[in-house]
């Protein structure tokens, strides 16, 4: 199947595909990854891979992480595996989002001095003389781990939230007892990608523990628990008059807390970007929420959204953004800056965005709501992904093939896979997939999202929504022999809706786990 479905199978080799990026665009990528005004929307899928490669490659220059370093070819394979593990049909929680989060973590670590200086025109330099900053307890090991976490923290995201799965009584929610459902799944699924493409990360207990803690911390349902821990940390620093007398146990515990807080900051850093970039992310996330709201309406279940989107209303959108920033983002970024002053740039940008949105609300209230604002922002998203995930803005004549293998390293390039990029789930050429699918369907395994019992008409709706269509790194596809659930009539749910089964989910893991 693929890395998660067949975790112990042979890995793809970098001789299977290449990535096309023009020399000019390559330099633009390098200069962009070290800037806080980084905009993931400006890059094609291939260029996003190159962004990720540049950031990991820079982290590998630290001698302290030599034990966990992988070759350029292996890194390329890993990044392609990560990209395949995300659903391109999901508007927000996709590979573009996690590269944005990855860049957020990368920039944080540069600013905090945990990563060495990056040779870029706008690269941040850590401020010297800040003896009170907790950044001193962070290590190169932590920086590398957070980079890995960032690119895998949303693996397999279906485009709906935890509350939706719990309300639906989805098997996935039941599997994790309704607690941090998606985050727990991301941990389990991402571990299979790592087991195959970066196995040493799964053999180091401290690294694996930090990965799990950090991914689980992205559950916004736990946000105030982490804020409470952060407040206690601030009080301890005040009482102890610094961290000079902390023992190793105290340092280790607070180091782990800082790592989880940094990944939380990066995960919602879209609201801390420059306003035009933040607004683009806002509209995309609103679209994802709107799809869930529509799905909930048609399934006749209560909404699981804290603030259901009001389509076409700039005022409603502005109020939701201001509310989120004041309640969640601003307190988090401010408290982080209190213990690590190098992070002041984040809260400054959040406050600026609050002011801009507030002005927009006032203007629309006085002059009438202006729904065209939303379309204006949408139109600014000039990137149009192609169906096969390849670069859609570069012709072959103006592109360069970057091929990193383990024998020869080209400065600045990246080697990639020849295997076809996910095109929406057509894996019909693999007879093993068809056989596995038939076997599991014959056993009547329930679908993982628990949607099979909703009946024909609602299943048609779900197919139309296409929010559960995801790549084979995490879920097999119905299209071409994937594993699907059963409809109310006991028959296959269809040929295009890739429902995930409990049987399939457990088949993702080694025998000793699934038994």
TrEMBL record:
Q: Where is this region: Disordered?
A: 1-22
Q: Gene name, please?
A: PDE2_1
Q: Which residues bind AMP?
A: 93-97, 154, 267, 321
Tell me which residues bind Zn(2+) 2.
154
| PANTHER family the UniProt entry points to | CYCLIC NUCLEOTIDE PHOSPHODIESTERASE
Protein name as annotated: Phosphodiesterase
Q: Catalytic residues?
A: 93
Q: Which cofactor does it need?
A: a divalent metal cation
Q: Per the annotation, how and in what number is the cofactor bound?
A: Binds 2 divalent metal cations per subunit. Site 1 may preferentially bind zinc ions, while site 2 has a preference for magnesium and/or manganese ions.
């Amino acid at each position: 199947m693929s890395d998660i479905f067949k975790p112990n199978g042979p890995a793809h080799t970098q001789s299977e595909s290449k990535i096309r990026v023009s020399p000019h665009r390559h330099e633009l990528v390098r200069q962009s990854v070290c800037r806080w005004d980084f905009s993931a929307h400006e890059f094609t899928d291939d260029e996003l891979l190159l962004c990720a490669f540049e950031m990991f490659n820079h982290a590998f220059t630290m001698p302290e992480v030599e034990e966990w370093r992988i070759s350029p070819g292996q890194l390329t394979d890993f990044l392609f595996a990560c990209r395949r593990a995300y659903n391109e049909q999901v508007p927000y929680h996709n590979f573009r989002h996690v590269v944005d989060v990855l860049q957020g973590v990368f920039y944080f670590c540069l600013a905090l001095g945990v990563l060495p200086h990056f040779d870029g025109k706008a690269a941040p330099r850590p401020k010297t003389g800040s003896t009170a900053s907790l950044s001193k307890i962070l290590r190169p090991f932590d920086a590398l781990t957070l980079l890995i976490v960032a690119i895998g923290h949303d693996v397999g995201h279906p485009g709906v939230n935890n509350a939706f799965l719990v309300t639906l009584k989805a098997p996935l929610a039941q599997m994790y007892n309704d607690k941090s459902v998606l985050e727990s799944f991301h941990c389990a699924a991402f571990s299979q990608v790592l087991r195959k493409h970066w196995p040493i990360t799964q053999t180091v207990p401290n690294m694996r523990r930090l990965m799990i803690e950090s991914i689980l911390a992205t559950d916004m349902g736990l946000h105030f628990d982490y804020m409470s821990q952060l407040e206690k940390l601030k009080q301890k620093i005040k009482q102890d008059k610094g961290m000079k007398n902390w023992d190793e146990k105290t340092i280790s515990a607070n180091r782990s807390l800082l790592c989880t807080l940094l990944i939380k900051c990066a995960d919602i850093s879209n609201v801390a970007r420059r306003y035009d970039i933040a607004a683009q992310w806002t509209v995309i996330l609103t679209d994802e929420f709107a799809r869930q709201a529509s799905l909930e309406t048609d399934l006749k279940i209560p909404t699981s959204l804290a603030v259901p989107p009001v389509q076409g209303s700039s005022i409603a959108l502005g109020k939701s953004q201001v509310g989120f920033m004041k309640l969640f983002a601003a307190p988090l970024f401010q408290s982080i800056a209190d213990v690590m002053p190098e992070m002041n740039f984040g809260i400054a940008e959040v406050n600026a965005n609050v002011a801009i949105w507030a002005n927009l609300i006032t203007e629309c209230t006085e002059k009438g709501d202006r729904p065209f604002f939303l379309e204006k922002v949408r139109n600014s998203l000039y990137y149009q992904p192609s169906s096969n995930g390849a670069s859609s803005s570069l012709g072959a004549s103006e592109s360069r093939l970057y091929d990193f293998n383990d024998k020869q390293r080209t400065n600045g390039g990246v080697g990639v896979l020849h295997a076809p990029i996910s095109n929406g789930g057509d894996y019909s050429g693999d007879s093993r997939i068809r056989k596995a699918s038939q076997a599991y369907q014959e056993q009547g395994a329930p679908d993982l999202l628990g949607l099979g019992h909703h009946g024909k008409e609602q299943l048609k709706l779900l197919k139309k929504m296409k929010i559960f269509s995801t790549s084979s790194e995490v879920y097999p596809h119905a299209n071409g022999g994937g594993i699907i659930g059963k409809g109310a009539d006991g028959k296959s749910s269809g040929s295009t809706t890739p429902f995930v089964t409990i049987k399939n989910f457990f088949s993702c893991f080694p025998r000793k786990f699934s038994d």
